[in-house]
């Protein structure tokens, strides 16, 4: 009887774990089927996001990055988190050491690894968030156009919190991300 119970639990656990597995691409990066598959023209990608009523973000990763893997198998495995991001964002995945050619907002064409240097991306994962429209990027180069950056791996609450922070345009109101998180935390606390 114990063996049957153990086998049942293991089977159930493996079924749950399998439901959240990600695919590995030829470049060694974990893939989400809802990530943007584009011609890597950032201006066009931002315009498409805007047209669909969503925000645009770039997630930078690299092969062998354990925190990138965690982002996929922990953060993106959370159905509520993943669904919220999919409903509100167009996410483009770029490779810190990649060689695909990307057309930057300013028209410059660079391999991913050179764009990463231009944007001062030094570790992974890093998520960059951009303004709501192409017009807001006019005259800005590299990372100067981003409205927020999530540098490194964060647990689900803070990870989703940054996406919500940008969606709510708190950066435009001068509110720091840390204050936003504190405000959200206090709002969840029961009244005393």
From TrEMBL:
This is Thioredoxin. It comes from the Bacteria. The keyword Ligase does not apply. It comes from Paramagnetospirillum kuznetsovii. The keyword Phosphoprotein does not apply. Keywords: Signal. Gene3D superfamilies: Glutaredoxin. Residues 1-19 form the signal peptide. Residues 49-136 form the Thioredoxin-like fold domain. InterPro entries: SoxW, Thioredoxin-like_fold, Thioredoxin-like_sf.
């Amino acid at each position: 009887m114990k063996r049957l119970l153990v086998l049942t639990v293991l089977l159930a656990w493996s079924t749950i774990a399998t439901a959240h597995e990600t695919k590995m691409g030829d470049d060694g990066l974990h893939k989400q089927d809802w990530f943007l598959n584009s011609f890597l023209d950032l201006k066009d990608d931002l315009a498409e996001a805007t047209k669909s009523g969503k925000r645009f973000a770039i997630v930078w990763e690299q092969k062998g990055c354990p925190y990138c893997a965690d982002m996929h198998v922990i953060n993106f495995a959370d159905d509520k988190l993943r669904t919220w991001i999919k409903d509100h964002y167009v996410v483009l995945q770029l490779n810190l050491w990649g060689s695909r050619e990307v057309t930057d907002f300013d028209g410059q064409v660079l391999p991913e690894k050179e764009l990463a240097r231009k944007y001062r991306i030094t570790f992974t994962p890093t998520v960059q968030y951009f303004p709501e429209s192409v017009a807001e990027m006019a005259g800005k180069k590299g990372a100067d156009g981003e409205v927020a950056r999530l540098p490194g791996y964060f647990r689900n609450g803070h990870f989703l919190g940054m996406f919500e922070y940008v969606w709510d345009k708190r950066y435009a109101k001068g509110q720091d991300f840390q204050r936003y998180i504190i405000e959200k935390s206090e709002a969840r606390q029961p009244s005393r």
